[in-house]
Amino acid sequence: MRPLIILRPEPGAGRTGQRAAQMGLTTGLCPLFEGRALDWQAPSPDRFDALLITSAQTVRLAGPQLDLYRALPAYAVGQATAGAMAAGFSAVIAGETDGTAIAARIAADGHRSVFLPGGADTAQIEAGPLTLHRIAVYAMVETDAAGLDALVRKEAVLMVHSPRAGRRLAALVSQERRRRLHIVAISAAAQAACGGGWASVQAVERPEDERMLALARRLCE
């Protein structure tokens, strides 16, 4: 059985590793990035009629200022992000694909001015009629990726949870080693960011860890 290498940042890496272990998979954790909180000034919630969160890292790193927006209709990209918000927000509407899709839902619900706290380097969103007020509340910084070289010396399956992780993985792994490695990507954009030369590169239909793990299990066996 091929081992599964999990590249996402903590604390998500640990959660994915636990789920994979429960499925009987052999795992190795090597986060390529870690989240660091940034200082930010919270604008008045009166300026907005909805809140959009695109990553659970925002909930973890934004700090107590995020509480100011609890009264706003809340939207999230993906069930994992919605789950991270569950403790602080009474009702969260989760999108099943990406930021552009949930932006269309927000617009359809009649909102226009949307507060979007997030990372310093986040995916682009087609806002349509929305005005998105972005503020960086955290940054994802590169780790030293210690241990990755040893993990990719043999056949393995790697989980790529973002386009940025795909680009960094492509920079770290030589073409020669790629022939033995299979990639499971969280989106088509993450899949494309990995480049070519891998044994296989596949993306799941929706950005859900459970779907990624189901695909990874088939590749590991």
Short description:
By secondary structure, this protein is α/β, with parallel strands linked by helices. It is built from nine helices and eleven strands. The longest helix has 12 residues, at 209-220.
Structural account:
With 221 residues, the protein is of the alpha/beta class. It folds into two domains: 4-32 and 145-220, 3-Layer(aba) Sandwich (Rossmann fold), CATH 3.40.50.10090; 35-141, Rossmann fold, CATH 3.40.50.10090. It has helices spanning 12-22, 56-61, 79-85, 99-108, 148-151, 163-172, 175-178, 188-193, 209-220; strands at 4-6, 27-29, 33-37, 50-53, 74-77, 92-95, 113-119, 131-142, 156-160, 181-185, 200-203. The strands form two sheets. A six-stranded mixed beta sheet has the order 3-8-7-4-5-6, sandwiched between helices. The N and C termini lie close together (5 Å). The mean pLDDT is 93.
Give the helices and strands as they follow along the chain. Answer: EHEEEHEHEHEEHEHHEHEH
Given as residue ranges, the uncertain stretches (5+ residues, pLDDT < 50) are: none
> How many DSSP helices?
9
Summing up helix and strand content along with how strands pair, one would put the structural category as: alpha/beta
Strand order of the largest sheet: 3-8-7-4-5-6
- Strand content is 25-35%
Shape: elongated
Q: Helix fraction?
A: 25-40%
The CATH level-2 architecture of the largest domain is identified as: 3-Layer(aba) Sandwich
Please name the CATH topology of the largest domain: Rossmann fold
Backbone CA Rg = 18 Å
* Strand elements, count: 11
N-C termini distance: 5 Å
Give the number of domains: 2
Q: Mean of residue pLDDT?
A: 93
Instruction: Give the class-level CATH name of the largest domain.
Output: Alpha Beta
Largest beta sheet, briefly?
A: 6 strands, mixed
